[in-house]
Write the C-alpha cells for this entry.
Amino acid sequence: MHSQFFSMKLATKIIHAGAEPDPSTGAIMTPIYQTSTYVQSAPGVNKGYEYARSQNPTRKALEEAFAVIENGKHGLAFSSGVAATDAVIKLLSSGDEVIAGSDMYGGTYRLFTKVFERFGVKFIFVDTADVKNIANAVTPKTKLIWIETPTNPLMSITDISAVAAVSKKAGALLCVDNTFATPYLQNPLDLGADIVMHSATKYLGGHSDVIQGALVMNDDALREKLYFIQKSCGAVPGPMDCFLVLRGIKTLHVRMKQHNENGYVVAHFLRKHPKIDKVYWCGFHDHPNYNIAKVQMRGFGGMMSFTLKDDSVEAAVKVLSSTKLFSLAESLGGVESLINHPASMTHASIPREERIKNGLTDGLIRLSVGIEDADDLIEDLKQAIG
Ligand SMILES: *Cc1c(COP(=O)(O)O)cnc(C)c1O
C-alpha cells in the first residue's frame, strides 16, 4: 500500500508516511477522528470502518507511518508499550517458552514473570550480548526470542542478524524492542527480526506527553494474528494520542540527530570526570560490542548510564537530587533531559539479587540526554556531581 516510500530516504518517509490529505476536506493533517462508531448505509455496508476498537482513521494513518519508518509492511498501534508487548506474548500458548534478555525494561520483566508465567508461558533470561547463550537455551518449545538492543539501562548490544539466524533455525519468532535505538538508528526487520516493538511513549512521541506502543511486521499472517489480538483484547490508543504520535514522528530525524550529538558530548564528559567510575554508552570504541553497534546502528543516541566511584546509594541520590536541567523522572526519549535511578524507579520491579547479578547496581544512574544546548547540560552535571 505504501510502496511509493520504498525508494525514499528516512527523512522524507518520516514527514510523509501516513499523511494523506483528508478525503472529505483536504485537511493536510489527519484529523482526530473522535468517534466510537460509524454509520452504515445498510447492515454490513460500510466505508471500511465499523467500530473504533477495530478501526479508526487517525490510528490507521499512524499505523501506516509506523510501518513505513521501520521498513515494514504492517504497523499496529497499542495503548502503551507494555500493551504492545502483551499482544506479542498472547501469540503464545501455555507450555511455550520465550528466551529473553537478562537486562531489560523492568515493566517487560514484570509482565513476563508476574502475569504470563501464571498462564504457563515459561521465560528463560540470558545475556543476549553473547548469541551462544540464546542458542544454548533453545528447546523444541521455544516459540519466541525477545531482545532489547541497546538494553535498558546497561546499554548492552546484541547482534540482531546473528539472533535472527538462531530464531529461524529454531522455528521461533524474533521480536526486537527498538525503543532505545528508534528507526533513525536501527531497523531490526532489515536484519531479520519478525516483529519490531516500540514504546512510542519515548522517542517516537518525543515530547513526554503521551503513552503509546507500536508493533511493526512484514508477514501478512502474523499481522492478521496480531490485529486479531489488538481488536479482541482492546488495548488500542485513542485518536488524540495517535495524532500526537503522528506529529511527534515528523521531527524524529532532527531530534535524533541532536540526541546523538549531545549524547556523544555528555558521554565523553562523564568518562573524563574524576568522580565517575563506569560509563555505559554504546558509542565508546572500547564498549564490549562496539563492533556490532557500529554495523547495525547509524549512531549511538542519547541514552547512557553511569556509576560513581563512591557506589553508595547516598552518593547517587545526592547527584539525582542536585541536577536542575536534568529532571528526576522515569521515562526517556523526550526533548528534555531526564535523570533516573533504575534500582528504585524504572527497574524496581526486578528483584534486587537479579538486578545486581546482571550489573544493575544500587548506585547506577541513567540519563536520557535531551536536545537542549550541550554546554548547559554539561554545566548542570558538573555542579550536580561536584
Ligand atoms: C518504556 C519502555 C517500555 C514500556 O513502554 P510503555 O509505553 O511505558 O508501556 C518498553 N520497553 C522499553 C525499552 C521502554 O523504555
Summary: Residues 80-82, 105, 107-108, 148, 152, 177, 179-180, 199, 201-202, 211, 213 surround pyridoxal-5'-phosphate (CB under 6 Å). DSSP finds 14 helices and twelve strands in the chain.
